[in-house]
């Protein structure tokens, strides 16, 4: 079988699905190849839903700020889908002077990039969120941060892209990419060859093994992240929360459950086949102990499920959004390093602009793929 499209996208996470939508909207014929049996089966259906600017690497800030100002507020309307976007701010909490120092540094960096974020004391923190314990002595407060539902957002992009003619083929793992006369020309799967003028690889960590044979190497490694969800509780607060130490983050969803994620250091020590990202029995209790110190009110909340997902951690913690050097027509969107949901729509929009000869809304040079090369 040989099948052609203007653009082939590998991976149907939020980035691949959103890129399919924005490219189809510009009149491109698009085919999306997804290895799993369902769309969005990677990090995009497993993440904590944070749509935040605060605490980010300054190189990422212009792009994520643009997305939060220009895409997220109208996304539900644009996609005809309830993406459950709530823009009620992010409190990044501190309990010690060392925490406040960390938060102050992040805040200063973000303010220098034009973000509305400031340090507040414990009383102001509890005025915003009265459920926080007296142990919290301060926080950074970014009123324009928020959260959304990763499942419905990814599905919304998928449905809307399909409505514009994009074709999604699941259970179709790409094994290799092909060049013709130096340009990218096709992706090979067990069932055939898909030809296209342009190929966007948005396959998370697997991007590396697909592009490496073409001489394009993005240093990334697979890193496991875990989340948990509680039973539905009465509405308590609408902000996104995080901590200076990044030991937990989370929010209350539209139907009342709390979704929390956290880094415990135990994630790599699963018992099961690491091809499938299973949660450990130890991580959730560790995360919960942290949460209870900040939120005594949640001490009795019952956890109904835990899960894990892979993130594509790049060597310098920010993504690659670029045409591959030396392989015209091959584009990469990878290395989101555990925070690609909030920035995903803006990343996909920008690449769609670039791939169609338009001008991305912000400078994409911090995300070039050649940045890892040895400097001469
Ligand atoms: C537990 C957890 C919590 C997180 N919390 C947050 C958060 O709160 N906020 C935030 O911004 N980000 C968060 N993230 C990160 C975020 O989920 C990811 O950065 C984002 O979803 C990446 O989207 P993507 O489309 O690039 O990749 P993915 O969603 O991983 O999609 C890649 C797709 O490519 C497919 N694929 C792989 N190889 C092939 C192949 N050879 N052929 C065809 N298809 C292939 C995969 O099956 C997958 O569907 C979290 C991640 C995890 C795991």
The major β-sheet equals: 8 strands, mixed
The small-molecule ligands in this entry are: flavin-adenine dinucleotide
**Beta fraction of the residues?**
25-35%
Helix content: 25-40%
What is the rounded distance between the termini?
45 Å
Q: Topology as H/E string? A: EHEEHHEHEHEEHEEEEHEEEEHEEEH
CATH architecture of the largest domain: 3-Layer(bba) Sandwich
The CATH class of the largest domain is identified as Alpha Beta
Q: List unreliable stretches of 5+ residues.
A: none
Concise overview:
With 376 residues, the protein is α/β, with parallel strands linked by helices. It has helices spanning 14-25, 61-70, 75-79, 97-112, 122-128, 150-163, 206-211, 283-294, 340-355; strands at 2-10, 30-33, 50-51, 90-94, 118-121, 138-142, 146-147, 167-169, 176-180, 183-189, 192-201, 220-230, 240-243, 249-252, 258-262, 303-314, 320-323, 330-334.
């Amino acid at each position: 079988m040989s099948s052609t499209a203007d653009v082939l996208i590998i991976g149907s996470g939020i980035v691949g699905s959103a890129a399919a939508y924005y490219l189809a909207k510009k009149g491109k014929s698009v085919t999306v190849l997804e290895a799993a049996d369902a769309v969005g089966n990677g990090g995009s259906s497993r993440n904590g839903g944070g749509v935040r600017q605060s605490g980010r690497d300054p190189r990422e800030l212009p792009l994520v700020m643009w997305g939060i100002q220009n895409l997220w507020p109208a996304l539900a309307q644009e996609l005809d889908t309830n993406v459950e976007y709530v823009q009620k701010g992010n409190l990044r909490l501190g309990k010690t002077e060392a925490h406040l120092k960390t938060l102050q540094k992040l805040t200063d960096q973000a303010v220098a990039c034009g973000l509305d974020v400031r340090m507040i004391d414990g009383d102001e923190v509890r005025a915003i969120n009265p459920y926080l314990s007296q142990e919290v002595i301060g926080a950074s407060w970014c009123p324009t941060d928020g959260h959304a539902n990763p499942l419905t957002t990814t599905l919304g992009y998928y449905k809307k892209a399909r409505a514009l003619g994009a074709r999604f083929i699941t259970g179709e793992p790409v094994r290799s990419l092909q060049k013709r006369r130096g340009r990218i020309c096709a992706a090979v799967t067990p069932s055939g060859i898909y030809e296209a003028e342009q190929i966007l690889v948005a396959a998370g960590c697997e991007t590396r093994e697909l592009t490496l044979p073409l001489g394009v190497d993005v240093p990334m490694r697979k890193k496991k992240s875990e989340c948990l969800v509680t039973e539905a509780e009465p509405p308590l607060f609408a902000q996104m929360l995080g901590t200076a130490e990044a030991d937990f983050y989370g929010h209350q969803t539209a139907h009342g459950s709390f979704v929390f994620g956290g880094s415990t250091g135990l994630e790599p020590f699963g018992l099961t086949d690491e091809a499938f990202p299973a949660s450990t029995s130890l991580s959730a209790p560790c995360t919960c102990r942290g949460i209870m110190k900040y939120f005594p009110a949640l001490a009795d909340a019952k956890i109904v499920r835990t899960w894990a997902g892979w993130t594509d951690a790049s060597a310098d913690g920010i993504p690659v959004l670029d045409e591959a050097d030396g392989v015209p027509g091959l584009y990469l969107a990878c290395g989101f390093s555990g925070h690609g949901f909030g920035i995903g729509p803006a990343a996909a929009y920008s690449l769609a602009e670039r791939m169609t000869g338009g001008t991305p809304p912000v400078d994409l040079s911090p995300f070039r793929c050649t940045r890892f090369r040895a400097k001469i």
